[in-house]
Amino acid sequence: MGTMRWIAGGIFLALLVLLPRELKPYGIFLMSNWVLFCVVAMGLNLTLGYAGQISIAQAGFLGVGAYTTAILTTRFGWDFWLTLPVATGLSFLLGLIVGFPALRVQHHYLAFVTLGFNILIYLVFRNEDWLTGGAFGIFDIPRPGFLGVDMRDPLSFYYLCLVFAALMFAAAWWIVRSPWGRAFAALRENPVRAASLGVDIRTYTLLAFAIGSAFAGLTGAFYASLLEFIDPYPFALEYSLSFLLMVISGGSATLIGPIVGAGMVLLLPEWLRFAKDYYLLIYALLVMVLMAFCPEGMVGLWRRMVAAIGRRRARAPTERPT
Amino acid sequence: MSKTRLGVALAAAVGLWSAVAGAQDTVKFASIIELSGNGAAIGTNWRDAVDMAVEEINAAGGILGKKIEIEHLDTQSNPGTSRAVLQKALDGDPYVVLGPIFSSSTRVNMALTERAGVPQIVGSEAASITQQGHPTIFRTSFGQEMGMPKLVNYLKNEIKAKKVALIWTNDEWGKGGRNTAKDLMAKAGIEVVADVSTEVQQVDFSAEVLKVVKAGADAIFAYCLEEESARFLNELRKQGYNGPLVGETTLISQKVIDLAGANANGARGHVGLTIDAPVDLLQEFGRKFEARTGRKSDHNGIKGYIAVYLAKEATERMGKFDRDGFAKALRGAVVTTKDEPGVLMDLRIDETGDVDRESFLVEVVDGKQQVVKVLPPVGDWKK
After folding, report:
1. What is the pTM of this model?
2. Does the interface predicted TM-score (ipTM) exceed 0.85?
3. B78 compared with A157, residue with greater pLDDT
4. Out of A26, A135, A137, whose CB is closest to B87?
5. If both were cysteines, with which of A184, A283, B182, B373 could B361 make a disulfide (CB 3.0 to 4.6 Å apart)?
6. CATH assignment of B145-271+361-375, given 2.40.420.20, 3.40.50.2000, 3.40.50.2300, 3.30.365.10?
């Protein structure tokens, strides 16, 4: 099974590298957007899926990173790469602050706290014209330079996003398998028992928020560069709900889940456009059916199918006529 | 077997030839428009009017003998999606792009048409759109910099307002309009006694209405999106306000009248395009649109209709399909209804792509727009 996973992973990576070469700019733009949103969903998956702390503010953290890079590059002439630590650090810090209420409240109460934070951050983006450009947004955000490659070329920028996403996937993989990941899981399953075993609940709750937020903030820098323009709307509450849907529909607490979920939320409506006026209706119905019949998401559905096949194979010899 | 293969090969060759020939007989237009989300109501009017214009042109033989092939792509009223779908449209190599209407979407995606060198005829009204130096962008309606001066003159000279309460939608379009109007009012000596922002898709207007009603203004100026304008009007009448109420384009639009019913009565303002204007071609368009769709067109439908005919006129002036020559053919040009009846009113396009023509002061009476006065164009090109 382990070998099969490596082979499947290799094929998937090869597809990610080769497929965009055959696509037109629209397809490449969608793929770039998808790989970036995978990272945002991975961050939320660490907070929600692994540590069990619900957050409806992921789009807000994405916005913090995006605006940080946009402001520093367009107003102060900073190099894109120098803005990355600032974007990451700022979103990490804000994640820590948002994490504090999680020490007092849980579940839907916590959801409302984070929801309030997202609305607050959106209002800052929209109303503080002197800093963010308000409703008019920020234009002409530069693409980063990298080893002399022209990143205005959609394919080159896609490969940069892909490398970034791969590194972030490796980071998430490492976190999940590290003592931090095990502490997150303990926090999710039974905080009292985790505390009795010596897990510092306070630190790990705050870290779960801060790391998840930093994933979004760092991605925000690339997202601003991809669009070359930002305004407050992609960072509103409804987009945080979309990120939540990515994690849940893909399969929370799995590394692959956010990737599948981001594909489902971002790419599926585009594939369904052939249905013209009905494409969003069909999309909504598909999501409802998935959530009703398989609340563990697409990865859960896949696991169920594999288990069913396994059971059938195990039963098969006894069913043969003798 | 070989005969079958030969037959298949021949059929494929004929099919390929007819596909190529078909492609040569058509010209591709892409419409990037709000068909879902909070812009769906206005985008649907645009789409239906564009389809109507395309059918008329195709029925009359097309443009320079080529039939128009139109594809509508839904922006979901989302600037990011509008950029993605415009890229999709550009991948299909369209001759011209029509739309979108939301200014925030146009601001995000117009860089793509500029890079691709494809003409874009938008329904957006934010002043900033034609101030970016985009060489091939055009409007079919007034930008705020054209419409607002007429409205402020009306407030000063007709209503004699010295104090005005402003209520506006806090997005790029609303804020742009509010800024333009506020500057013009300051120059005209009109004091802004309340400056109230509202949200896109806001439902409850009670607190905002209370603020503008209690501000002690001589008139209220409302600059909200269509659905929000209707909700604002309902709350305004609920709170018993019957003083002067003016708006620019949206407040007195057909969509708002349909949604607000009798509560829209008494609203006044400036509108660039209306099917109730005393212009035969506009009224005829209104009748055709209603017969086709079963509803009245607002100004967005008229914008979409004119956009298709403007592209036709530019092409016929050049005598060829030439994206590079498109801007040269239209910028600085006067297009009269004698040249092309589909533009519905004589108009002039300036060097930035802004449009100038007559416009109307209207009042809503018994659920209908009633034109009070016809205002001349800003420029003196009609003379």
Report:
1. 0.82
2. no
3. A157
4. A26
5. B373
6. 3.40.50.2300
